[in-house]
Amino acid sequence: MPNTERLEKIAKLIRYFSLISTTEAGSGHPTSSLSAADLMAGLLFGGFFRYDAKQPNHPNNDRLIFSKGHASPLFYAMWAAAGEVTEEELMTLRKFGSRLEGHPTTAFRFTEASTGSLGQGLSIGLGMALNAKYVDKLPYRTYVLLGDSEMAEGSQYEALQIASFYELDNLVGIMDVNRLGQRGETMYGYNLAVYEKRVSSFGWETLLIDGHSLPEILTAYEKALTIRNKPVMIIAKTIKGKGVSFIEDKNGWHGKALNKEELARALKELDTVDTAIRGEISKPDELRPAEKVSQKAAQISYEKDKSVATRHAYGNALVRIFPQFPEMVVLDGEVSNSTFAEIFKKAYPERFFEMYIAEQNMVGTALGLSRRGKVPFVSTFAAFFTRAFDQIRMSRYSDANIKFCGSHAGVSIGEDGSSQMGLEDIAMFRTLLDSVVLYPCDAVSTERLVEEAAQYKGIVYIRATRKDTPIIYDSNEEFRIGGSKVVRKSDKDAVTVLGAGITLHEALGAYEELKNEGIFIRVIDLYSIKPLDDAMLYKAASDTNSIITVEDHFAEGGIGEAVRSALADRDVPIHCLSVRKVPRSGKPDELLDYEDISRNAIIRKVREIL
Amino acid sequence: MPNTERLEKIAKLIRYFSLISTTEAGSGHPTSSLSAADLMAGLLFGGFFRYDAKQPNHPNNDRLIFSKGHASPLFYAMWAAAGEVTEEELMTLRKFGSRLEGHPTTAFRFTEASTGSLGQGLSIGLGMALNAKYVDKLPYRTYVLLGDSEMAEGSQYEALQIASFYELDNLVGIMDVNRLGQRGETMYGYNLAVYEKRVSSFGWETLLIDGHSLPEILTAYEKALTIRNKPVMIIAKTIKGKGVSFIEDKNGWHGKALNKEELARALKELDTVDTAIRGEISKPDELRPAEKVSQKAAQISYEKDKSVATRHAYGNALVRIFPQFPEMVVLDGEVSNSTFAEIFKKAYPERFFEMYIAEQNMVGTALGLSRRGKVPFVSTFAAFFTRAFDQIRMSRYSDANIKFCGSHAGVSIGEDGSSQMGLEDIAMFRTLLDSVVLYPCDAVSTERLVEEAAQYKGIVYIRATRKDTPIIYDSNEEFRIGGSKVVRKSDKDAVTVLGAGITLHEALGAYEELKNEGIFIRVIDLYSIKPLDDAMLYKAASDTNSIITVEDHFAEGGIGEAVRSALADRDVPIHCLSVRKVPRSGKPDELLDYEDISRNAIIRKVREIL
After folding, report:
1. Reported CATH class of domain A307-470
2. Which of B305, B419, B550, B554 ranks highest by number of CB atoms within 10 Å?
3. What ipTM was reported for this prediction?
4. Residue A452 known to be catalytic
């Protein structure tokens, strides 16, 4: 057992750093930092945490995630106490250009994942622990610092259940129960028994401790190492603002920095701070995951004109490209027989993780895996990704490399009705900076675009269709992010129709019927919705007098608005056909007609224009 | 205790209806319906449920919500067994135009809320129970039928904790544990003890029963009535497909209708079905909520040029307009001191409900309150509404009348950084059919628009700003949904700048500086983003040579794209300034400059155009 006197000194230094940096910033969360200072000092410098600060990306480093991201002053102070951040840099906290942002972001090299939206850290840690135990097979451990307030988020219980389901005994949660939330007391205050009962009911080992007693803290970390086949939650009773009497356990001090005068009083209370002392962090064993060799993916061969659902091709593609992308892992939310992720599960069961009906945790877990160098493909119904919009949004700020596949897009799913129809998914994924949104219309383009998605570093969304659609491309046809295909073209095209996915086939149907009347339309497969193929759009705008977009999605934030933005500086009229009525149950064709996005609707619109 | 023989007969009739209707439809979920048939027969016709079928909206009717919405065949079959749906209509299940959709929607008069996205029914029921106990003060009870698979959703645990926090002894959950999910077994199969331990750890009374024994079922409902100060969960062990041997407890039968031949075999097994028998539902006591009298809201009076945050004006407005809208209730997600909903809480504590950091449940609860005639105002940080996108999306399909207020919009919040910045909220709320999106720039317009929101029947989103902004309008100025204000105008305007919220003030700053150079711009306050003021936009398009939109939001699905759609048939160039870089921590002005949405950015763009 390490010398706790020395740790007490380091904890005091961490408190000191947390206080001076927030006062300098004029804002921030000192009280939420002080409550967890002893817990973090004990973890980082008590000999339990193994981390090579010179190699933050070392595959066998232990991982620490601040789920309570507002305690960032503590996070930065810890690393200052480790000698990795200078006092000078500490004083740049929250200033423009500083790596030390208001909530931890990946701009700071020791941040495992950007946090600040509460209730997400445990899922991210779960992903890292899953990676250690089942993928990289390394002994590193993952620690997650949690606030008591954020235990109200349902996502926490999603993570608790999946972590115990996968028996993650390499995952340790540290719950900082300081009783006070932002605007007052939490639902349970200091009733730690409630947390213990709940967390253990989810199959976790629980350890109740005084979060300001270093001996108890060290004993808990030691005990945690001995637990097998289940995760451990250390539930620590702490005091918000601990160490500064006039802010201790006081309401109204959340997210408030001390002014200069208050700081002076606080520092007087801290008494002598050894500002020269620095903590030692143990080094990890020099272990790395087994080398993974990449082999070229097999060729694809689909019979042209045969009908195959793009969601089915998605499943086929995952199996086909895995040899080429050995860092791939596949997650699905209890619908793998609908998304066809089950094809991958059957071929590579050790790389498939069933996430059950808990989409928030599924996305958080994918982020954790991504941050450990994996390439997660995550699937559920397009509609149900809305469940995890906050996790998706936050994953962008962690530079995630995740591929999302949403099946059952649009009203064309038919009888199941509105609750199952993804009609906002394009708008949602388009909002993410630098995101890629792909929407293939047949099996060949799906296979190719899944490959492109795996190549691309970043967030990619693949929109898949429920019903079978005819294969219109040769198996050797090539597709690229930012591309498009002109599938019908003549020198007398009156109008350009931009379709994608299901509506591309409606456009082709309209083409045939109009051709019989001697009306020719250009039909373009807009399989890359973000980025768009601007060059092709410009050409269509100059070649034809008007453009029609057709999408099985709501108008707002969809394909029509994307195209209008891309052609903002061209004065070609753009007519947008999209879902504008509350969808109902019915046959796919009935619904496409009802929403005016069918071949008939396209034909009507073309006639109206001419 | 009612005669169970008769109930057995009715349960058999319900099974019969569930089977024939799904076979006729050729799809649907018969097996998920059969597992809960006895539970529902016992509830509806066992004398416990009190409902006047002639008055579905009777304020004192008990409420039943099918959280496992895919069991809709059972739902419709129950009402057929009650004599409220003809066998003929039953056979229209899932057909276009039928009220009997694939998942229950409000098109069917006995549907309390549209369901089908799992894990939402308990929150909706919580809202209805909250209404009964604290608002309408009526003795009606709310029952929620839950699947075991959907218990993986975190939203369930958000609802469990809040329901026990509010001691809702008028809320009864009925968990149909049939062991099988869509693609296989649930995490816990028939381990009912796990559910019991978990649910009771959240403060609920739990009753374990055999879900196919009517005596046990009736005893449980009777017992449930006697529990005080806590909600009750009946955890029933059931068999998926119960009653038809060859589909009982079999994997691969989820969401699959029997073909004609299988149906014949199934009906032979059901043996004699009394198709003439109908069940009796008890009537509710003739009670109604106390009359609420509406008085005109007080006048507003703000000092012009004084600076007040719009989020603060939101809080003031709630208190001011409550007398005029006595059906109002206010919900907040543990940030009422930031959204200023706390001002309402202090004035009308009995109408304020703290929802803690659990946004999914907060929105589901608001839907339940809305379906009982209340007008919920729901607030949190704009960014955190993304947490509840699925619930928001689904609330639209229940014709919700909910007002959302998102504070801390955009990068202008400053130091807290990206995790706290709402930059996708406009895109998200715009996707909802018929939604209204409002974005006031000062306290006066906020007060007026909160009033307009309360008037409007439907979903309204109000976007609020963190920092204080100067009041630019007289207190008697009028604002309307679909309106806008021309705040700077001359006969030599070269460019029109469309701002909203924080950026309107940036546009005004740009106006002053450009004026000194003899350049005049028209400045318009686009406070109603959806619907837009088309007439004004057309006028600006014809009066000036180009238009600039400026928004503290990402480009996709935001104000720029909305304006481009509105002006699609005009050929005025539209330049869109929006957030296009990963935001950082910093001072509001530094961040507005960094993202090129500040007065300086507007000035640069205007010069570039001229």
Report:
1. alpha beta
2. B550
3. 0.98
4. no
